[in-house]
Amino acid sequence: MKSAMKRVALVLSLTLVLGLGAGLVQASEQITLQGSTTVLPIAQRAAEVFMAKNPEVSISVRGGGSGNGIAALLDKSVQIANASRFIKFDEVKKAVANGVYPVPHRIALDGIAVVVNPKNTVDKLTVAQLKKIYTGEVTNWKEVGGPDMKIVVISRDSSSGTYEVFEELVLQGAKVVASALLQASNGAVSDVVSRTPGAVGYVGLGYLSDKLKAVKIGATEKAYIEPSLATVQAGQYPIARNLYMFTNGWPTGDAARFINFILSAVGQKIVKEEGFVPLW
User: Fold this and answer.
1) Domain enclosing residue 153, as ranges
2) What whole-number distance in Å separates Cα of residue 3 and Cα of residue 10?
């Protein structure tokens, strides 16, 4: 009888221990990130490395554009919003009305590279020429020193932070020509430009490849700057921006640990390895 009671006590003890252990596993935070497709490669790679070091943490990363990511944070459906632009005043008002208090965390720098098909002979453009191309004032590459070929304008959609920064720094409030082909991601822009001889598009530095030709950009015709880590860090490249992660209030727990990881030396190395510009 005593032996049976000991076995029951042992089973109950193991059940309690296992139950507590399961509770600890379930209590580990599920972190969901959503937003900018520019930030996406950094977030995905950082999540992989962080989870390998911290297997009790589960991190899910989704794209969809900066606007969608911030909207998800405002709806309290994600813990972190990835954004390639700063939050807008209207978004802040909506956030506060919903009891959300967005806190920005700058995680990297980036240049928006203007890209053409490698077969295109054009290798430099001024910001003024680029604006004329994207507003439809210039429609043939020969008008900017290139071949006699129709320009196919490729742009991001309005939910994209990359589009909003491009609109501010290049279009300066003007609207993209109605015939532009709108794409939902950096990857889609890269794919279309790589397959279309007359195309022009813009992508984050991390999306440059030998399938694209990045053109030098000049504020004037006297100084053309290539998009690169060095020129962005030095503040020379004219189409550059900060990359952010936004949280609801100051982050705590695993969300704070993850953002601190991205800001660490290891995290900033990942930023550089993914083709973007580290903060230091």
Assistant:
1) 110-240
2) 10
Residues 99 and 189 in one domain: no
CA distances to 1, 3, 14, 18 from 6, rounded to whole Å, are 9, 5, 12, 18
Which range, 21-30, 55-64, 214-223, is most confident? 55-64
Phi-psi region of 154 (alpha: psi -120 to 50; beta: other; left: phi over 0): beta
pLDDT at 24: 39
Contact 241, 112 (CB under 8 A): yes
| Tokens representing residue 84 in the block | 């390639």
Cα 209 to Cα 194, 212, 254, distances in angstroms: 10, 6, 34
Q: Which amino acid is at 28?
A: S
Helices (H) and strands (E) in the chain, counts: 10, 12
DSSP characters over 211-248? TSEEPEEEEETTEEE---HHHHHTT-SSSEEEEEEEEE
Examine the domain organization and report whether 162 and 173 are in the same domain.
Answer: yes
**Average pLDDT, stretch 48-60?**
97
Domain count, the chain: 2
- Identity (one letter) of the amino acid at 140? N
Would you state the structure tokens that stand for residue 87, as one six-digit string? 């939050």
Determine the Cα–Cα distance for residues 124 and 132; give it in Å rounded to an integer.
14
CA distance 201 to 112: 10
What's the CA gap between 269 and 278, in Å, rounded? 7
Query: pTM of the prediction?
Result: 0.81
